[in-house]
Structure formats: C-alpha cells, structure tokens
Amino acid sequence: MTTPQPNEMVYAEHASDIISKGAALIAASRPFALITSLEIEGGAARNVGSLALVDEAGAMTGYLSNGCIDRDIQLHAQKSLHTKRKKVIRYGEGSRYADLKLPCGGALTVLIDPNPDTDAICAAAACFAKRQPVRLTFHTPDDSGEGLSRTFTYDPRHRLVLAGRGAIFRSMAQIGNATGYEVHLLSPDAADLSAVGHLSASPPLYLTTPNREYVFDILDAHSAFLTLFHDHDWEPHLLRSALTKPVRFIGSLGSHRTHDMRCETLRHMGVSDISLARLRGPIGLVPSLRDASSIAISALAEIVATFQNADV
Asked: Which pLDDT value is given to residue 7?
C-alpha cells in the first residue's frame, strides 16, 4: 500500500473540538485514529493530554506541535488506520526520528490509536454538551515497551458572556470568538446585536430595561462575565445576578472612580463585600487604553490569566 500524502489540517485546539469531531465520525460510521500527547519533556507547543484525530481520508483535526511534526504524525496516523495497530512515537531528544527536530527542545511522546473507545468518546461528547468535565484514560499497546497509561481531565470550553454596547462590546465579541471562547451576548442596542449577534452561541438577548432581574443559567465555573457599558445604569442588576453564580471571572468597564461608585450601588442593593471582592474593575492588564480593540485584548488577557491560574 502507498500511503497518500497528508492533506487537510484543521488547527482545532480545545478537546471538545476533537471529541465532537470524533463523535460525528462515529455517528457516520467513519474510522479515525485518535492521537494523544502522553508525555512532554522540556518545552512544548501544546499541553500534555492534547488531542487530535486523523480520518480515513487523511484529514487532521487538532495539532500536537506548532507545525514542526504534525505532518509526520498525520502520516503515521494514516498508516495506523491501515494496519489497525496502536503506535507510540517519541519525537525530539532520544527519538529514533533524528531528522525531525523539536525547535523548542525536549521531547514529545504521542499515542496513535486507530481503534479508540467509541463509547468513551460519545460519552465525553455528551458530558461536554452538559458543561461537565471529561476524564479519558489512554493505554499504550503492550508491546510498545513504553509502559505508559495516562488519565487526563478536560474542562468544557470557556464561556464569555458579554453585556454591553458600542465599539468595545463589538470588539470583545469578535476577539473572544476568534480566540475560541463560546460567546453569549446581551445588549440594549439593536444595531450592536445586528452587527455581532451571529457570533453568539445562544440567541442574543435584547435588553429592554436596566431594572430587570436575570437568572443567568448560562453562567458556570467555566465562564467569564463582563459588563461593557459607558452608561453604567445598565450594570447593577446584571452584576448582582452574575455575582450569585460560580463564575470564574466577573468584571466591568470603567475607571477606578466608576468602579468605586459601582460597588457602592451594589452594596445598597444588598450585595455583600465578600461578593464584591469577586468583581474586577477596571478590567484589563494594560491601563488607560483608548481604542476598542486594545481594550478588548487587554481584558481578554486578564481573563486568560485568571483561567490559567485556576487550572494550575
């Protein structure tokens, strides 16, 4: 058999992307090889436990490096689909593939499984759909000589729930979506919702009054909530509702003076100082920015850092 050259590659990042693709291939009775990063030594472009898959046509979803060895992994996965045998490959230091270097140094061990546990993959897809963490265990073949068995936990995709209006609201929706967050949008401005509403994972919510109470069932421990208003009268009821949820990050646009006034308003509404300590403001890692896209990037960077610190 002559293995065709690897072709399509989709640089999907989140485990739910790979699991969702795998579940769709299972439903269509299409074979694929599941690829897992089992061990990392030294520097690496992806975390240990990162996933990818290659279908019978050679298309790859996900990646294990920054492009330096993914084509080779793709080729090995195609061969594994033909032989129906698991394969463990080590790249970098100590690898028998001396011509394939890892520019970041160190080593990477990957498992290629052409017969993955379809029940586990479908169950994982169902858990992700319910916003539940997923645990998957991977075993190397008995004859691999590596003796590796690893269990990894994968969180649901992070949500970014935005309530606001104007240029910063639009930029935050666009940049958050481009970064891979599951975006949900609320705004009192129909033009803003018309411009970026297609990015919302749920029907965008048109806000009609600042005084409405909200339930916010979409907010969970894997979510961030931002208010992005210059007219801050819209914030109090939204923030009070959000502060009742186990949201990882809650923040608001505005100056330090505005934030002090915001907190005082919420205290008068019965919000405790313990709850208010969770509210961040002004948002963003870079102070005193004046353009919408930079403010959005700065705010998103703070959110990324918060999630990263929580996962350590």
From this structure: 65
Dihedral sign, Cα of residue 216, residue 220, residue 222, residue 228: positive
For 20-44, the pLDDT digits (tens) are 999 999 999 999 999 999 988 876 6
Secondary structure (DSSP) of the chain: --PPPP--EE---SHHHHHHHHHHHHHTT--EEEEEEEEEES--SS-TT-EEEEETT--EEE-SSSSSSHHHHHHHHHHHHHHT--EEEEEETT-S-TTS--TT-SEEEEEEESS--HHHHHHHHHHHHTT--EEEEEE--GGGS---EEEEEEPPPPEEEEEE-HHHHHHHHHHHHHHT-EEEEEES-HHHHHHHGGG-SSPPEE---TT-----TT--TTEEEEEE-SSGGGHHHHHHHHTTS--SEEEE-S-HHHHHHHHHHHHHTT--HHHHTTEE-S-SSSSS--SHHHHHHHHHHHHHHHHHHHH-
CATH for 159-311, options being 3.40.630.30, 3.40.50.720, 3.30.1120.10, 3.30.70.2740: 3.40.50.720
**Confidence at residue 92, expressed as pLDDT on a 0 to 100 scale:** 73
User: Against a cut of 0.85, is the pTM above it?
Assistant: yes
Residue 104: predicted pLDDT = 59
Q: How many Cα atoms are found within 13 Å in the side-chain-facing hemisphere of 34?
A: 26
Tell me the average pLDDT of the chain: 90
Per-domain residue ranges of the chain: 9-154, 159-311
* pLDDT score, position 146: 56
Evaluate if residue 114 carries a pLDDT over 80: yes
